[in-house]
Amino acid sequence: MSDQSQRTRAEIDPEYDHRREDGVDESELESLLAGYTVGRDDHENAPAFVIRPDDVQAVLTLLRDEAGFDHLSCITGQEYEDRYESLLHVTKYDRRTHEVTLVVQLPTDAPVSQTAEPVFRTADWHEREIFDLVGIEYEGHPDPRRILLPDSWQGHPLSREYDQTKPQVVKYAEHANPLQPDRRTETDTMVLNIGPHHPATHGVLHLKATLDGETVVDVDPDVGYLHRCEEQMCEQGTYRYQIIPYSNRWDYTANLPNEWAVARVIEDVADIEVPTYAQLLRTMATEFGRMLGHFLALGTFALDVYGEFTAIFQYAFRDREVVQDILEDLTGQRMMFYFFRLGGVAWDLPEPRDEFIDKCRAFLDELPAKMDEYHALISGNEIFQIRTVNTGVLEPDVAKSYGCTGPVARASGIDYDLRRDDPYGYYERLDWDVVTADGCDNHARVLVRMREVEESAKIIEQCLDLIEDWPEDERTVQSNVPRTLKPDPDIETYRAVESAKGELGIYLRTDGSNKPARFKIRSPCFHNLSALPEMSEGEYVPDLIASLGSLDIVLGSVDR
Question: CATH number of 273-505: 3.30.450.20, 1.10.645.10, 3.30.70.100, 3.10.20.310?
Answer without folding.
Answer: 1.10.645.10
